[in-house]
Amino acid sequence: STLVGGQGDDTLVGGAGNDILNGGDGSDTLLGNSGDDALHGDGGDDALDGGRGSDRLDGGPGDDRIDGGASRRDRDLLDHSADPAGVVVDLPAGVAADGYGDADTVSNVDGAVGSAFDDNMTGTDRDDFLEGGPGDDLLFGEGGSDTLLGGGGIDWLEGGPGNDRLEGGADNDALFGNEGGDRLDGGAGDDHLEGGLDDDTLAPGGGDDRVEGNEGNDALDFVASAAAIDLDLGILGGGQTLDAAGNRLTLLDPIENVFGSPFDDRLAGNDLDNVLDGRSGDDTLLGGRGNDRLVGGSGTDTVDYTGAPAGVDVDLWRGWAQEDGHGGRDRLTDVENAIGSAFGDTLRGGSTLVGGQGDDTLVGGAGNDILNGGDGSDTLLGNSGDDALHGDGGDDALDGGRGSDRLDGGAGDDMMTGHSNRRGTDFLDYSADPAGVVVDLGAGDAIDGFGNADIISGFAGVIGSAFADVLTGTDGADHLLGGGALVGTDRLVGGLGDDTYVPGAGSTRAQEAADGGVDTLDFSAAGLGVTVDLGILGADQTFDAAGSRLRLDGPFEHVIGSPFDDRLSGNDLDNRLDGGAGDDTLQGLAGSDTLVGGPGIDTVDYAAAPEGVQIYLGRGVGFDGRGRRSRDRLTDVENALGSPFDDTLQGGRNGGLLAGGAGDDSLRAFWGGTVLMGEGGNDTLTGGRGDDTLLGGPGNDLLDVRWGDNLLRGEDGHDTLKGGLGNDVLEGGAGNDTLTGGYGNDELHGGDGHDVLEAGRYGDSRLYGNAGDDILYGGAGNSELHGGDGNDQLLGGSGNERLYGDAGVDDLRGEAGNDYLHGGDGGDFLRGGLGQDVLDGWTGGDWLFGDENADRLMGWSGDDDLRGGGGDDWLFGEDDDDILGGEDGANGLDAGPGDDIINRSEADHYLVLGQGTDTVNDPPPGP
Fold first, then answer.
1. Which of 6, 261, 434, 736 lies at 20 to 30 Å from 81 by C-alpha?
2. Residues 6 or more apart from 690 whose CB is under 8 A from it?
3. 389, 400 in Cβ contact below 8 A?
4. CA torsion angle for 446, 448, 452, 458 (degrees, to 10)?
5. Distance CA 346, CA 356 (A)
6. 829-838: long-range contacts (C-beta < 8 A, 24 or more apart)?
7. Neighbours of 451 (CB within 10 A)
8. Computed from CA positions of residues 842, 847, 852, 857, in that sequence, does the dihedral angle turn out positive or negative?
9. What is the C-alpha to C-alpha distance for residues 460 and 448, in angstroms, rounded to an integer?
10. What HEC string does 685-736 produce?
């Protein structure tokens, strides 16, 4: 792969692969053979033959003979990139003056790579490759389709005959294509690009470039531009700024074609037949004179005939401008929008059509189009799709066609025709008018905000101005949008059909007859949450935080809320209240109502019901306390608020809140984390399958759970709380409560009052009696019992439990298991029961009885009475005057300080008498 010759006259012959041959000093002979080889003659007069393959040949110092090889399928290059000075290469003459001052003989090479200095290189009539490097280079391609790369420096590149590619690179270069269809890329710097005799492509780069197409059909190409291009081919001689970066271009003669950047370009033609291709981006194309081809490419593109001296006829459907205003005809491809002239235009198809100042005809396409007539008496036809037609100035004729259209006549006496039916609803749009409007859809006439009279037909909706409007519907189903009257009041008058009213900001009066159909107030476009009560008739109600007002004259059935937090109240009719997005509160009142919460956390409110209600959120049904025939349908509702009476509330699948209110209520969760609030009355609260929170409130409540890890709070009253399968927390609160744990590791707090607390059957529970005289029961697990304040009774279960009497005179009984009993403050009774127990009397005069098995009894402070019972026990009197009796078993008795009495049994093995006067009583003699 690599052969290195050394100082002698060496012969190096490469193999079949891609080899590196370094001759070293001496007059060497290097033969590359096949493969793409690199041959370096180094010092001396060397002979280099590349052989087959595309080789790079560097003679180095000395007068070298360089032969690329006879094969014409390969590309062999002279390589002067390492020379210490500029080179002169004349490939037609077969000579090269290298950078060492030597003369080389060259044959069978396809190009040359120059030095880092100022080079002068000339190609052959074949397809040559010349690369200049960093210096100020002169490159001449001559014949053939050549590639010339200037690189850095101020370069001069001439292609010669043939289809050449010239790249100036950095700095200020001059590129000349000469004959043939050439591509010239200026690169960075202030470049001069001159095309030559044939069809050339000129690509200006950054800087201030000058372009001359010369003969042929030439094109400017901005595919590599980093910003959008704004170019006018009609500006010759004077420079124009191309982009936001400040790059400039001077056109020295007319150019025919432009290919834009990947961004939003503005391309204007000249008097020739131009091709303007915007490529990607949202482009604007102005053809000007001539028969032009305008190609939008991807994106939303526009043809603009604003400057045309006469009216234009543009058909975007068929892709032609039959008349461009100059007498020419343009071909249109991938164009969506058209802008007309200041004269009478005809524009067809497209997404957006803009007419201008003349009397224009605009015809939309099959999609959702925007048609702007401009000044003049225009005719606008929307065709199919949901279109927006704007007549603007003049007496216009607007026809929406099929679809749901919006028609705005603008100033002038306009004729507007809609086609409202089951397939679409057309709207009159006066939202941009400068004053209030009077519109009567039934009568077919309107006075617009400019004071002009419009003739209207076929509309089922009208949008008012931002001022005080009077909008009157038909006998059909109408949509009346007030627009908002910040000064004065909008008056919306429906007819006999099912109408929709949209109050705006400010003041609105909605007028509906008693037999006027099923009518709806729609706040879905409101910018604030709303509070609406359908039961308030004939008086203003403020419905949002901005102080907007609404007066209802006549009955309404339905309300659609805003995207924010709403409160919607119905009336005695069958209402539909749809909260929309936001956390909404819905109050149906009388009637069989449909209450739809929508997205967010929504609430149905039955606080005003005359009797108890039954709400089943999971089934989507509510009975409102007005009889079984008054039945509500509930959708997307998470929370329910009951009445002041006896209610039944059941939750849904998404958790939420159930609040019973006053009365003896039954609340049941279904799924998810539900909060149940009994509030007033003697309530029954039942958890569901999630992690629920049960709050009893005042009254004697029953709180019961089964699944999940739950929180139960009885609060006021004598409550009963029951845990379930999970790890529950039970808090009794005020009153004499009964708390029963379940199967998990529960925590029970009795609270104030005389409470009964019972650990679950299997879990390791913690019981806290708190204030009052409480009874605490352990279970089968290893529980912990705390009596708290008051005279408490603590009864252990079958597990290994810890009992703490705390304050008061307490009764602690370990029962089965190896238990720890701590009396706390006061004179307590401690009995270990079965198992090996530890009894701590702590303060006060305590009575300690170990009972069965080997126990450990400690009296601590106070005059205590310690009795071991069965088993081998240890008794420690500790402080004060104690009584110690080992009873059965081999016991150890330690009196501790104080005047103690020790009743010794025959089995006692170990007695310790402490400070003070102790009395030891021997056991009575046997029979």
1. 6
2. 655, 669, 671, 672, 673, 674, 707, 708
3. yes
4. -40
5. 11
6. 830/805, 832/869, 833/796, 835/800, 836/871
7. 10
8. positive
9. 17
10. EECCCCCCEEECCCCCCEEECCCCCCEEECCCCCCEEECCCCCCEEECCCCC
Q: 155: closest CA among 176, 139, 177?
A: 139
Tell me, what's the pLDDT at 904? Answer: 80
pLDDT interval class at 72 (50, 70, 90) = confident
According to DSSP, the β-strands at 65-67 and 174-176 are unpaired
d(CA 202, CA 180): 13
Q: How many CB atoms lie within 10 A of CB 309?
A: 11
For residue 925, the number of C-alpha atoms closer than 13 Å in the C-beta half-sphere is: 1
Q: How many CB atoms lie within 10 A of CB 245?
A: 10
- Checking if the pLDDT of 927 tops 70, the result is no
Cα separation, 643 vs 608, whole angstroms: 6
**∠ CA 56-58-62 to the nearest 5 degrees?**
160
Whether residue 665 is contained in a domain is answered as yes
Q: Where are the beta strands (DSSP E) in 98-228?
A: 103-107, 111-113, 120-122, 129-131, 138-140, 147-149, 156-158, 165-167, 174-176, 183-185, 192-194, 201-203, 208-212, 219-221
**DSSP string of 463-522, one letter each residue:** E--SS--EEE--SS--EEE---EEEEEEEEE--SS--EEE--SEEEEEE--TTS-S-EEE
State the pairing for strand pair 275-277/174-176.
unpaired
Residues β-bridged to residue 661: none
Q: Tell me if residue 532 falls in helix, strand or coil.
A: strand
Domain encompassing residue 618: 601-717
First to last CA, the chain: 120
Residue 533 and residue 546: Cα distance in Å, rounded? 17
837: tokens are 């127990």
The rounded percent of the chain whose pLDDT value lies above 90 is: 86
Reported as a single tens digit per residue, the pLDDT across 551-581 is 999 999 999 999 999 999 999 999 999 999 9
Q: Is residue 323 part of a domain?
A: no
Q: Look at residue 627 and tell me if it is in a domain.
A: yes
User: Which pair of tokens denotes residue 826?
Assistant: 């006061």
Residue 908 confidence (pLDDT): 60
Q: In this model, does residue 296 exceed pLDDT 70?
A: yes
pLDDT in tens, 432-485: 999 999 999 999 999 999 999 999 999 999 999 999 999 999 999 999 999 887
Residue 625 lies in a domain: yes
Q: What is the mean pLDDT of residues 831-851?
A: 91
Contact 565, 529 (CB under 8 A): yes
Q: Which amino acid is at 308?
A: A
Alpha helical stretches, state H, 408-457:
none
- Reported as a pLDDT band with limits 50, 70 and 90, residue 926 is low
Q: For 681-693, b where at least 16 C-beta lie within 10 A, e where not — what string? A: bbbbbbbbebbbb
Q: Cα(149)–Cα(143) distance, rounded to whole angstroms?
A: 16
Number of domains in the chain: 1
Q: What is the dihedral of CA 540, 544, 548, 552, to 10 degrees?
A: -30
Burial-class residue 912 by CB neighbours within 10 Å (0-12, 13-18, 19+): middle
Q: What is the pLDDT of residue 1?
A: 87
Residue 634 is encoded by which pair of tokens?
A: 């509930």
The whole model's pTM is what?
A: 0.78
pLDDT at 731 over 70: yes
- Phi/psi for 162 (5° steps) reads 105, 165
Average pLDDT of the chain is 95
Distance CA 771, CA 778 (A): 19
Angstrom CA distances, 550 to 12, 484, 532, stand at 101, 11, 9
Distance of CA 431 to the CA centre of its chain: 32
Element (H, E) at 379: strand 379-381
